[in-house]
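Need residues for this backbone.
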C-alpha cells in the first residue's frame, strides 16, 4: 500500500475500529499526520491544532486496526499512557508482523 492509498483508506474508514490494518497502512498514515501537523504548525498553530483534532479519530481507529493485526486488543494502545515505557511497548507492537491466527480477522 502506498501513501495515497493509505490516506484514502484511513479517511474512508474514519471511525472503523473493526478489522485489521497493515503495517504500511499505519506507518504511511502516521507519516502523513506528522508532516501535516509540522507543516501546518509552521504556518499557524491554530491550523495545526485543527488538523490534529480532525485526524485524531482516524489515527486511533487505524492504530486499533493495526493492533488487531498483531493479535492485540485496540484497548492495548492505552498502555502508551504509561510514561516513556508505554510508548516503547506500543511502538514495538505496531512494528510487529501480522499474525495470521489473530482473532480479529
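Answer:
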Amino acid at each position: 500500500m502506498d501513501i495515497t492509498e493509505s490516506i484514502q483508506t484511513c479517511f474512508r474508514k474514519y471511525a472503523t475500529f473493526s478489522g485489521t490494518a497493515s503495517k504500511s497502512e499505519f506507518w504511511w498514515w502516521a507519516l502523513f499526520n506528522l508532516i501535516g501537523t509540522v507543516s501546518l504548525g509552521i504556518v499557524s498553530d491554530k491550523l495545526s491544532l485543527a488538523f490534529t483534532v480532525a485526524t485524531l479519530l482516524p489515527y486511533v481507529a487505524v492504530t486499533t486496526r493495526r493492533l488487531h493485526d498483531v493479535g492485540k486488543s485496540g484497548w492495548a494502545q492505552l498502555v502508551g499512557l504509561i510514561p516513556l515505557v508505554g510508548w516503547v511497548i506500543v511502538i514495538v507492537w505496531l512494528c510487529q508482523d501480522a499474525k495470521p491466527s489473530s482473532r480479529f480477522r
